[in-house]
Amino acid sequence: MPEENNALDQDFTRIFLVRFALPTIVMMIFLGLYTLVDTIFVSRFVNTNALSALNIVCPVINIIVGLGTMLATGGSAIIARKMGLGDAQRARQDFTLIAIAGAILGIIIAILGSIFLDTIIRALGSSEILYPYCKSYLSVLLFFTPASILQVLFQNLIVTAGCPGFGLVISLGGGVLNVILDYVFMVPLNMGIAGSALGTGIGYLVPALLGITFFLHTKGPLKFCKPAWHLKVLRESCSNGVSEMVGQLATAITTFLFNRVMMRFLGENGVAAITILIYSQFLLSAFYLGFSMGVAPIISYNYGSGNHSRFTKIYHFCLECIGSTSILVFISVLLFGSSLISVFSPKGTEVYEIARRGFLIFSFSFLFCGFNIFSSSTFTALSNGKVSAIISFSRTFGFLALALLILPRFLQITGVWLAVPLAEFLTLLLSIALTLHNNKTYHFFKQSGR
Question: Residue 3: what are its φ and ψ, rounded to 5°?
Fold first, then answer.
């Protein structure tokens, strides 16, 4: 029997569903904002070459976040399912094992990354102009890799524990500290781009430490205990959450392709412009990411408990929310996109003009990406990592890489801007097809005659 007073075991209305997911949504939006502030500070207080360097080393960050998210989302689905089945002790054991594995993984990456730092930066395509900025930033940030992975884990699992509000508090605290330290390190202390990395790293460390404290002392259903060393749990977490890792790895590769194409056509200014659009996209997609993360435990729980009618109703509510928000975001980008770009680079500069022209085309991607993010997250929550990985891979790599390799040959820079909207649209068609194909299994829509 499910545990009494479980926050996931409720008959959710539209308003209550959004309210439950709201802390995670706000957390992701705030994460997007302070990530954006990082790039704005780098652009304004250092220069646009330093901004370009952020994008050069971004694939390394994508891989680290991807590994953490893979464990977090895959593990969350397993833990929430076992909670739904009433096996609370096993859920706690699995949670503890996943957290330990995340910390060990972070330590290994930090050591190997530091040893091969120069080789990594050269392989990512850094020019001689950008190399010093890349090395200064990445050498500092790698030190905080264990904290980075743990804070991603805790962001997801605090929601699974039924305390999304606390997850919001520690994320906001880490973000505010990140912004303050960015300014202190970069301006009064004149540490340049290394100061940005140090502020970001401390912004990872604080939520990680608070998360550890929370799970050591909480009286809730999910907390640290003596783990059961079942490697099958780690394998299942990785295989179930592989779509998130695939998504981040694909983002790393496509970011590399973006950088190479823009460097070839427009040099360092082109890389700076695409950096502005990529980081702006992260902010503008934050609602979809936060909403999908926030409702994932609800989806896992209701599927695990076998309540198909409630599951179907919740799924439909989610689609309505994603659809209305997609239209709102698209209109906002058309109206205010130029103002957002001017925060990074003043009007009239070459970087501003390149980014402004690109954003007009790029903005159409926001009509489709929300559905794709939610579809991938839903299949992860249902422990169908295979389908989730197909959607994520197609969106962030398959269609996008193909578009980046083909369109610029014929349309040059316009082809670069068209690549993302085209990839999102093709992935939407694929997501619809896969959802309908799996309808009998998961009851996304009512069956005829039933």
Answer: -65, 150
Helices (H) and strands (E) in the chain, counts: 18, 0
pTM recorded for the entire structure? 0.72
Mean pLDDT along residues 25-31? 79
- Is 450 a domain residue? no
d(CA 253, CA 277): 16
Phi, psi for residue 134 in degrees, rounded to 5: -60, -45
**195 close to 50: Cβ distance less than 8 angstroms:** no
Interatomic CA distance for residues 362 and 287, integer angstroms: 18
Cα 437–Cα 441–Cα 446 angle in degrees, nearest 5: 80
* Residue pair 8/162 in contact by the 8 Å Cβ criterion: yes
Residue 447 placed within a domain: no
For residue 4, what pLDDT is reported? 46
Tens digits of per-residue pLDDT, 205-261? 988 998 888 888 877 777 787 777 777 778 877 777 776 777 678 778 888 888 889
Q: For residue 24, what are the domain limits?
A: 14-442
| pLDDT at position 365 | 93
Record the tokens describing residue 340, joined without a space. Answer: 């957002």
Q: Is residue 6 part of a domain?
A: no
Min mean pLDDT across 108-117, 166-175, 204-213, 432-441 is at 166-175
Q: How far is CA 288 from CA 18, 228, 334, 376, 421, in A?
A: 12, 34, 19, 11, 16
The total number of structural domains in the chain stands at 1
Non-local (6+) Cβ contacts of 4 within 8 A are none
> Is the distance from CB of 261 to CB of 408 less than 8 angstroms?
yes
Amino acid of residue 65 = V
In a domain, 399, yes or no: yes
Instruction: Mark out the alpha helices in 218-349 (DSSP H runs).
Output: 231-240, 242-284, 286-304, 308-344
What is the pLDDT at residue 370? 92
CA distance 206 to 333: 33
